[in-house]
Amino acid sequence: MDGTFSPGGWDSVKQGDGIYGLPMGSGPMALFYNKAVFDAHGIEVPTTWDEYYESAKKLHEADPNVYMTADAGDAGFTLSMIWQAGGRPYSVDGTDVSIDFSDEGSQKFAAQWQKMIDEGLIADINGWTDEWFQGLGDGTIASLATGAWMPPNLESGAAAASGDWRVAPMPQWIEGEHVNAENGGGALSVMEASENKELAYAFLDYANVGEGVQTRVDQGSFPATTAELNSDEYLEAAPEYFGGQKINEVLAQAAADVAPGWQFLPYQSYATSIFADTAGRAYIDDSISLADGIASWQDAQVKYGNDQGFSVNQ
């Protein structure tokens, strides 16, 4: 089924020569931004992360109540940003695991985001809270780098800003490149213990490749299938919330631009659960740098993996 799914979704279900599921959705990243806020303060849509930083400074200087974005420490966002920056901190081969956040991509993100933290350019607001949605709705949070599944969440959670938001490609680490990463997504698999594997797979095929895909797209899901991503109907959609912009043109290209080679840990859920107590401390304690926090996060992931019977190197 190679070619049936977008690159990020397909890579996520492969391990070596094995295919362990079918992608149900993906989350290629894009820059969601409040055009009304940008226009009011003369902010151009940034195409690089250096421009993003300069725009964040200009915006916050113009109105100290407005921030370019909000981040109180999020493991998924951090990993996606490292992915886009070229980092590949995880390598997995069966029970042999390597974890190394000293790679150039990881350090590039840590240094860039540290500047934003140090200069107070990021609103210290946890995602998915009422305060976060309020900021997205009233313009005090002016942009969001996140997965392509975000539009229905903005429409329902930040309805007050209808017509103001737009979508742009992710800013690049190197000017002129078109490199992207995933932020979220999902898959369905048939378990070995299933008593009716053929029936289970038939449902997977319906939901993830067949007619069920359009049903989910109609409900606001972002598809992982290239047929839907490349269809005229999908690409021509122009939601009123986004000012009539054909946002799926941007999001479909974002899916095509996802860089290959990323791997997650076999125990990624645990790694995510300890982010706040390790790397996340850099957001609330000035004595801890983000790079040091990520190093602490790495140490904890290595220890846990070895304790669980994996052979983990760093």
TrEMBL record:
Pfam family of the protein (one): SBP_bac_1
Name under which the protein is recorded: Extracellular solute-binding protein
Alphabetized InterPro entries for the sequence: Bact_solute-bd_prot1, SBP
Domain of life: Bacteria
Organism encoding this protein: Paraoerskovia sediminicola
SUPFAM superfamilies (alphabetical): Periplasmic binding protein-like II
